[in-house]
Structures are given as C-alpha cells and as structure tokens.
C-alpha cells in the first residue's frame, strides 16, 4: 500500500481465468513470469473458476518464485457465478492497475507480449487486441483446423488489453455467457457501441497451442451454439455482419430430410422415405467431405468425421432452438 492507504498503481495487471487445467496454467505462468516488463511494474491475477488444491498449488509455487523479482501473483477463488466472463470480471475488479491485459490459461505469451501491448496502448486508445498464432501439424484434424480460426478472429480475449475505466463503463463482460464462446465478441461489440477507440497490435504476440481433444469432440462443442442466440439478440446487425451472414440452411435441410425419412417410414410411405433418405445421405456425405478436406486421413479420423457429420446438424439445430427459447429471440 502507498502512504495514506492508497493502492499502488501498476502499469499493467494480467488477468488469467483458469478452470481445472493446472498443467496448462503452469506453462502459461512460466511465460508470464518471463515477460520483459519489470516485475515491479506488473501483477498477475489468476482466477480459479473451479477452486482446487492443484490450481492453488501451482499459483503458490509461482508466487514464491515471482516474489524474488518483485512480481505479485494473486490467487482468486471464484465460487460463482461461473464461466470465463464471470472469472475475468472477478480478476479485473481485483486489479491495481489502470490497464488490464487478458489471456487464457492454455496460452504461451511471447516474452515481449506485455511490452509491445503497452507500447501500442497510446493515450488515445481505450482497448487493443494482439496477434495469436496457433501452430498446427502438417496434417491437422478437423478439430485442430477449426480451432486455428481463432488466430484470424478479431478482438480475442486470449490476447487483449483494456483500460479499467472502459471496463467499468461497460460493467465488464456479460456473465450470461457461461461457456467460452461469444463472450469476447459481445465485449467487442459493446466496445464499438460505446465509441471506444480500438487498435490492433500485431507485435503483441501470444502463442495458443491447440489442446488435445478427445474423439468426437465436435459433438460436445455444439452446445456452445446456444450463446450465438444471445449474441444475436444483443447485436443483430453486427452478428450478421461479422459472425454469420445467413443461417445454416444446409443444416436445416439435412434435419428436414432426416425427419421426412422417419415420417415416411412411420407412415409406410417408402417412396417418401427413400427419397428423403437419399437427400439426407447425400448432404451428410457432402458435409463429411468438406470437413475432411486438407486434414489427416487416418482411419480413426475418417470414421470420426463420418459419424459426427451425421450428428452435428441435428445437434446444431437443437442448440439453436434451445438458445432461441432460453434468450427469447427469433434465431435461425
């Protein structure tokens, strides 16, 4: 504390939300404590969204090491509400700096990340996002290729800086976004609506290795789509301009063909069932082919693409309907 009981102001506070990934957090902390910014000019705030001894131990180890260079590492246990948006809010509200840098526990920030970000944050800039690289193997899986699109996204919270005054003006991130999906786009769109001055800082680099994923991961990923409905409800124009211009009519057609197949079979109308099944099989094969393009062709991966391509349209449409009902918006 400074004289008179006022909190010291640091050039930057780094907020890292984490949830049950102590090994990845340990890797991230190694990169953050190696930043070229002086230890006394920064603090690291780790928000544990699923408080555990494993995460607490990792933070404790780095707290001791960082103290040797005058760097404060702070552990914040978040007992709810949960989700990355809520965790980031807990973090920046604990911060002593007027500038907040956000990254994620599965990233590896470049040693010059903070220095370049702060250099780009001129007095006339309210927020900025840096560059993300996602190294991929020569023959990636569909999941790895899909995840790598994060590197071309605009304003990703795995690598962004924002003035605390702007976070206060917006009341931080919208905690209705309970999963790691669309909460950064929502924050970006609200920055734009606020008239914030936003800059891209490509020299502020964060490496984001693609995490290993279990077989069939694309099935569980569909649950996130419900939050597209929330983003669309809040920002319909920007959603159509920057996220998805039109609904996934191909998915709706695949689902309609599947339902027609089942209906035809139930009614004993085998002509209808056969025609609808042909459409369903053809479009499912087309989807599978698209997903396999420029990816690995191992037997396991091809089988995964075939089976999940049959399930994804149904689940995607289902979660769109769930989101539309949950957030009370007409969303296709």
Short description:
By secondary structure, the protein is of the alpha/beta class. Helix content is 48%, strand content 14%.
Description:
Helix 9 crosses helix 13 and helix 12 (270-292) packs across helix 13 (299-326). An eight-stranded mixed beta sheet has the order 3-2-1-4-7-6-8-5. It is 48% helix and 14% strand. Mean pLDDT is 95; it is low at 1-7. It is elongated and about 75 Å long. The N and C termini lie far apart (53 Å). It has two domains: 10-213, Spore Coat Polysaccharide Biosynthesis Protein SpsA, Chain A (Alpha-Beta Complex); 249-326, no CATH class. It contains 13 helices and eight strands. By secondary structure, the protein is of the alpha/beta class. The chain has helices at residues 22-32, 53-67, 84-94, 113-120, 142-147, 164-170, 183-194, 217-221, 226-234, 236-242, 249-267, 270-292, 299-326, and strands at 12-18, 42-48, 72-77, 99-102, 108-109, 127-133, 160-163, 198-207. Helix 1 links the parallel strand 1 and strand 2.
């Amino acid at each position: 504390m400074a004289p008179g009981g006022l909190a010291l102001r640091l050039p930057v506070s780094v907020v890292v939300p984490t949830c049950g990934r102590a090994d990845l957090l340990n890797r991230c902390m190694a990169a953050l404590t190696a930043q070229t910014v002086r230890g006394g000019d920064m603090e690291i705030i780790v928000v544990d969204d699923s408080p555990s001894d494993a995460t607490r131990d990792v933070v404790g180890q780095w707290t001791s090491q960082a103290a040797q260079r005058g760097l404060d590492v702070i552990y914040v246990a978040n007992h709810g509400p949960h989700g990355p948006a809520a965790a980031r809010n807990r973090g920046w509200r604990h911060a002593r700096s007027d500038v907040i840098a956000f990254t994620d526990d599965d990233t590896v920030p470049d040693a010059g990340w903070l220095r370049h970000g702060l250099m780009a944050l001129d007095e006339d800039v309210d927020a900025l996002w840096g560059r993300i690289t996602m190294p991929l193997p020569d023959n990636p899986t569909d999941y790895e290729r899909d995840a790598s699109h994060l590197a071309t996204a605009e304003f990703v919270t795995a690598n962004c800086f924002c003035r605390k005054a702007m976070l206060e003006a917006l009341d931080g991130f919208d905690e209705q976004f309970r999963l790691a999906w669309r909460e950064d786009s929502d924050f970006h769109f609200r920055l734009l609506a606020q008239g914030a001055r936003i800059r891209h800082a490509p020299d502020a680099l964060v490496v984001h290795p693609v995490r290993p994923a279990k077989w069939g991961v694309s099935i569980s990923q569909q649950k996130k789509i419900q939050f597209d409905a929330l983003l669309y409800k809040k920002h319909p124009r920007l959603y159509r301009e920057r996220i998805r211009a039109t609904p996934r009519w191909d998915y709706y057609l695949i689902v309609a063909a599947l339902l027609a197949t089942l209906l035809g079979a139930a009614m004993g109308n085998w002509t209808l069932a056969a025609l609808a099944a042909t459409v369903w099989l053809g479009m499912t094969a087309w989807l599978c082919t698209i997903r396999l393009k420029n990816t690995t062709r191992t037997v396991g991966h091809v089988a995964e693409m075939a089976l999940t391509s049959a399930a994804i349209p149904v689940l995607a449409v289902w979660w769109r309907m769930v989101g539309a009902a949950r957030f009370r918006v007409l969303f296709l």
